[in-house]
Amino acid sequence: MSEENKPARKRVGADLLIPVVGTLYAGYYVYSVWDFPPEAQRSGFFLAALLVGLCVILFLRTALLHFAGRAEWEFSSLLGPREGRMGRIGFVALIFAYLLVVRHAGFTLTTFAFLFAGSLLGGIGSLRKAAIFAFVTAISGWLFFIVILGTRFPRGPFENLVTMVVATWN
Amino acid sequence: MELTAGNLLELFLYSASMWWVIIPAVFIGIIMGAIPGFAAHNTIIMLLPLTLAFEADIALTFMVALYCASHLGGGVPAILLNIPGTGGAAATTLDGYPMSRKGLASRALALSFVASILAGLITSALTLFVLPYLSQVGFYIRSVEMVVVMLFGLALIAAIAAQDMIKGLIAGAFGLMLGAMGADHIYATPRGTFGILELFDGIPLVPALIGLFAISEALIMLEEKSIAAGHSKSVTPSWREALHNIGDAFKHWFLIIWTSVLGLVIGVMPGAGASIAAFVAYQQARVFSKTPEKFGTGHEQGVVAPEAANNGVTTGTLVPLLAIGIPGGSTAAVMMIVLQFHGVPFGPRLFMQNPMLAYGVIMSMFVAYIFMLITLFPLTRYLSRITIVANYYMAPTIVAFTLVGAFVPRSFIADLTIAVGFGLIGYVARKTGYHVAAILIGVILGPLLERSFLLSMRISGGDPMIFFSSNIGNVLWVLLFAMLLASPVLKLLKKRRSKGDIY
Fold it and tell me: What ipTM was reported for this prediction?
């Protein structure tokens, strides 16, 4: 058989991540209901069996492709194109930093810092532009969500300062 | 509630009195719909703090108007830049962009707007009269049928929306498993929560959908520098041309009517969605056209058919949500979550307890299209400029504003972490061909399925044969298995046929 007539190789590997996580979670779920009375176990067993059964079909299909020499193993597609990869990984790290900081610094300051650093990591290329964008967006967000709508976003030094200043006017 | 002329007029006037909500929603919807990756559900998610703060009827009117407008907005960059703003506009690029290249961008935009608005008006009026009959369906569906209906809906989403059926089914089952997390329905003992207190009530839906749709989308957006760099000169059609072409667009009234009804029918099926409807309508328009050879070269019918169909879908996807409480698509799922937050029931209970709200949804849609007719045409010239916004502005803004949206319903900081967790799941799912809508609908249906499953088992004393004891259920089981088997069988037949061609 010539190269052209060979069936196309299917890229596998990264697509097994969700079934593996799903199977592990199903196992943990069954473990967590193991001591329950049978009446309360049934639905958990049913759902876990459904998920694991489907995952096993995918694992078998992948194994068959592998043994037929039609599987091309790869995981790099998860990270997207090489260009800008470090910036995107930095962006994910920035999201986790947001989670840690927002409870202490409050919505407005954290949003400003996140937008400033996030736009730089995204490739804005100018500190001045990033600062103006972050400032305008964070202040707009504060005005719209906190001042106008009164939503209970996490409060920090900025929100407390504004509240204090407004209180002195009365 | 009897749907009399008086009731209809009252509903119409009440919906029209919401002009102050509809007009901003229409503008936001069109602008956001024109941004690729920003479907209506993403915009509604971004504006969750707003919709959660409104009264239920105002929130619903806002979401419905925004939903319709975003489908219309999706056609703008599809025509001008060959970049569909929403999945439903993908088929519009086939003839819309060639029209732009021929210097007929303004005409293509007029066709798109007229087709979308007329389709929306026709299908919402039609649905208003059919909905009372559809709402009766809920009375025939008990816990046994409900289990099969939910599995059927999830399988349909998996089969149609995902490219690989087994991956679609895994996504749905994974969602169901995650949705079953939290205290069990009999003994209130936590299951599968990793000991996290904030998960004892189950997966919070708002953070889950923010993660699956908005955060994962923002992460993917960063892979491209900008949406439409280099196209800035072609995005501004002339005023005169746009207005002149609107009249001509009405000549396609017959095509608009039947492709919009086709969209409505496809939209009623859970998971089918606008993109499938638009491609089916495009294909059908070509089959019945007198000039099929012109399709793909900038043919007017090739713009009208998909645009009418994808707006017909907007009405259709709300039907299963209102009639039986199962969301017909991503946006309906988001609406369901917002309305659940307001304590609004679905299915027959909605029609018994709050019929004005149920019919008001469709009437709001009708009124939103009328407002679009009045307000939209003068804006055609400037709409597409939004597509030039760079992703380094968009992605951080989406993450920052949606993350705090996850905080709003329960005020738990842990909900931000849950949203990010689902964001990573959504990112991996998108990258590896699993449909995030199937995961989300699984998460929503998980607790409902479990409740119906346990109720049926209690009624039968633990006999699983109860799931095969009803006629409606059995018909659905047959359809479910037929659908699951159809895809691999068709693939096999196609493979054999192509082998036959070779030899």
Answer: 0.92
Distance, in Å, from the CA atom of B181 to the CA atom of B443, rounded to the nearest integer, reads 9
| Chain A CB contacts of B178 below 8 Å | 25
Strand-pairing partners, residue B226, are B390
Which of residues A48, A79, A110 is at a domain's end? A79
Q: Which two tokens mark B304?
A: 């009208």
Which among B235, B388, B292, B105 has a CA at the least distance from the CA of B92?
A: B105
Across the interface, whether the CB atoms of B391 and A122 are under 8 A apart is answered yes
With respect to residue A2, please indicate whether it lies within any of the assigned structural domains: no
SS3 B225: coil
Same domain, A95 and A165: yes
The answer on A57 and A130 residing in a single domain is no
Q: Hey, which residues does A12 pair with through a beta bridge?
A: A73
State the average pLDDT for chain B.
79
CA–chain centroid gap for B122, Å, is 19
- Residues of chain A with C-beta less than 8 angstroms from the C-beta of B220: 80
Q: What is the pLDDT of residue B268?
A: 74
With contact defined as beta carbons under 8 Å apart, do B446 and B333 qualify? Answer: no
**Range of the structural domain that residue A138 is part of:** 85-169
Contacts of B155 in chain A (CB under 8 A): none
All residues of chain A having their beta carbon less than 8 Å from the beta carbon of residue B423 are 95
Mean pLDDT for the stretch of residues B29-49: 70
Does residue A104 sit within a domain?
A: yes
pLDDT in tens, B324-383: 777 766 778 888 888 777 777 777 777 777 777 778 888 888 888 888 877 776 665 665
Residues of B in contact with A159 (CB under 8 A): none
- Distance from the Cα of A165 to chain B's closest Cα (Å) equals 25
> Phi and psi (nearest 5°) for A124?
-65, -35
pLDDT in the model for residue A42: 84
Q: A108 and A130: one domain?
A: yes
Instruction: Determine whether the interchain pair A22/B170 forms a contact, defined as Cβ–Cβ distance below 8 Å.
Output: yes
Please give the interface size between A and B, counted as residue pairs whose CB atoms are below 8 Å apart: 195
Of A49, A79, A109, the domain-final residue: A79
Same domain assignment for residues A71 and A95 = no
Residues A73 and A122 in one domain: no
Q: Residue B423 pLDDT > 90, yes or no?
A: yes
Task: Write down the pLDDT at residue B278.
Answer: 79
Q: Is residue A4 part of a domain?
A: no
Helix, strand, coil share (%) of chain B residues, nearest 5:
80, 0, 20
| Nearest CA-CA distance, residue A169 and chain B, Å | 28
* Residue of B225, B403, B411 with shortest CB distance to A98: B403
Q: Say whether B399 and A95 touch across the interface (CB within 8 A).
A: yes
Do A61 and A100 lie in a common domain?
no
Nearest to B431 among A39, A61, A77 (CB): A77
Residue A3 belongs to some domain of the structure: no
Q: What is the pLDDT of residues A102-127, one digit of tens each?
A: 989 999 999 999 999 999 988 888 89
A36 and A62 in one domain? yes
- Are residues A36 and A69 both part of a single domain? yes
